[in-house]
Amino acid sequence: MNRPLTLAASVIGAMVVALDGTVLTVAQPSLQKELHASFAEVQWTSTAYLIAVASLLVFAGRLGDRYGQRRMFAWGMLGFGAASAGIGLAPGVGWVIALRVAQGVCGALLQPATLGMLRTAYPPERLAMPLAVRTAAIGLAAAAGPVVGGALVTDLGWRAVFFLNVLPACGFGAIALTADDHGEARPAGARLDIPGALLLAVTLGCLVHALVARPVSAQTAAGLTLAALTGAAFVRHERMATHPLLPPEVIGSRAVGAALGVLVAASAALFGTLFAVTYVLQDGLGLDPFHSALRGLPLPVLMVPSAPGCAVLLRRLGARLTTGAAMAVLSAGVLVLTGASGTLALGAGFALLGAGFGTVMVAATHVVVRRADAGTAGVAGGLQQTAMNVGPTLGVAAATSLMGVGTSSALTVLAVVAALGVVASLALPGRRVVSVTACPDARERAEVPAKMISDDV
Length: 457
Known about the structure:
By secondary structure, this protein is an all-alpha fold. 78% of the residues lie in helices and 2% in strands.
């Protein structure tokens, strides 16, 4: 498999999805006005996508393991581009919502594949830097999204932000579809656990819908209850299934479970903080959206170099120390923003958020993906992406619920959530001393000293 092309496809796929999310936020007011949509209908343009993508990520990853990561990436990108074009041409908000569901399904196909393709193309000991490049690209997309989206909406209207994705998505999808997949591991005998996939989809779909529903009502409680019931049924089914959706070698790893917990905690703390601080900047300090975005620029700016820096830290310190320190930095960033009002303090807080989150993204994702073999890389990627979708939903829901008590209280709780990630990181692999001369009959064995290496590289 062509490694540079695989890395480029993975990066573009991740950036297309990240850019889509950021520019949509900027486009929603204009969309609402032009299509005469209600606020609830505009909310559903985001909620429909979130439910579709979150509920299907793991099953889509399993499809990639069964039929090939490159193939799932190709169809996901082509579908994502086609849905984006359709939204840009939509005559009404109902069409937008329906096409956002289709976009979510396609996003679920391509997102785990962006990680699965890297695991297939690169050996475990060389995964850290490709993951760092992918994370840095997401940071760039996050920084560019509001600026690009604002310019497009101002000059060309909200439809232009969806046409932005069409060319890169369809172009790289077509390249991936026609590329040679020689050497890609696909376990031909693996069966698809359809009942398990349905149970997990209902569980995650109900959970996401309940968390994003506003205002909180009996419908929210019903959604959470149904999610708990189907979640319990899913666990029971997986224990009894001959070919479970989640292979035991993936979810049975203590390190993988801890890494997924860290990703949920980190993304919940980050996105919950961003939600709360937006109100501080605009309502409390009286800044307009443009100047609010300028105050937050240190976050993506620090996220970009922290990703490749994490690859170096992983080699020297291992995942446990790297992730624990990064989560502590993230928690400190939230605490700084709790009482920040001046430009310098706000910049410092956002910089800490970016440095901590960029490092955690690479370190925890590295643990999840490298612990899976090539035949289960899609499921591992699906689990990572699920954590990265559920975490922000939990964080924003928590921030929304706590804002009535006070912004400082909400941010303090989110800082505690990030601190819990420090505790979870203790279960990640560290460093160990091994001999570099494992061959028992090598006469030079005694002449080569033992070497300190990391479990993670």
